[in-house]
Design a protein that fits this description.
With 197 residues, the protein is α+β, with helices and mostly antiparallel strands. It has a single domain, classed as Aminopeptidase (3-Layer(aba) Sandwich). Helix content is 43%, strand content 18%. The chain has helices spanning 14-25, 29-34, 46-60, 87-97, 99-113, 138-153, 164-172; strands at 7-8, 66-69, 73-78, 122-129, 157-161, 176-177, 181-182, 188-194. Strands 1, 2, 3, 4, 5, 6, 7 and 8 form an 8-stranded mixed β-sheet that branches.
């Protein structure tokens, strides 16, 4: 049996990071709300999601806390005191989702941002596994890669869970749900904070 290891991602793994995260988020409720696929109800549109993930990886890889497990799982973290460049990204998401969609969702995004801690923290921006690797512990492996640093340095970690399943995973790793921000009756994000152990 192969033992999986979460390693720092390098630029040569850019395409793999994009592929894994695109695959992981195709069924994500918020992504499906922002980029609906007309032919597949409940799924995000693949080309638009892929384009967004290309930009997400480009923004986060230089920050030093992008992680990959073989070609099966990936996570993008923002370290304390550093923000990923956002100006071009906001414009891209507005273009991909459409101004009308983003205008409707903006109050919910603003509400969600109010839960982000003011103190320095690690922020889990994205984490996911390829379809054939779900339920095999890769999420826990990717989380532990940074949570160990948080515990060593006394740094909190923060994220937003988009599904009940992911919320349960994060709770097992010490994250506490702060609120539920409803984008629609069926789509919500749950800001979660984890104090260092």
């Amino acid at each position: 049996m192969t033992e999986h290891v979460a390693r720092h991602a390098i630029p040569a793994q850019n395409e793999t990071l994009v592929r894994v995260l695109t695959e992981a988020f195709l069924g994500d409720p918020l992504m499906a709300l922002m980029f609906p696929d007309a032919d597949n109800e409940g799924l995000a549109d693949h080309p638009r999601l892929d384009r967004m993930m290309q930009e997400e990886v480009a923004r986060h890889l230089p920050l030093g806390h992008a992680y990959i497990v073989d070609d099966l799982g990936a996570a993008l973290w923002t370290p304390p005191g550093i923000d990923a460049p956002s100006d071009d990204f906001v414009a891209l998401v507005d273009e991909l989702a459409g101004s009308a969609v983003m205008e409707e969702l903006m109050p919910d995004f603003i509400e969600m941002m109010q839960w982000k801690p003011a103190e320095p923290h690690f922020y889990l921006h994205m984490i996911g596994a390829a379809d054939n690797a779900r339920g095999k512990g890769l999420g826990s492996l990717l989380l532990s890669r940074v949570l160990d640093i948080c515990d060593r340095d006394g740094t909190p970690a923060y994220l937003e869970a988009s599904t009940a399943r992911s919320e349960a995973l994060y709770a097992r790793h010490g994250f506490e749900t702060l609120a539920t921000v409803h984008f629609t009756d069926t789509v919500a994000l749950r800001p979660m904070l984890r104090p260092p152990a």
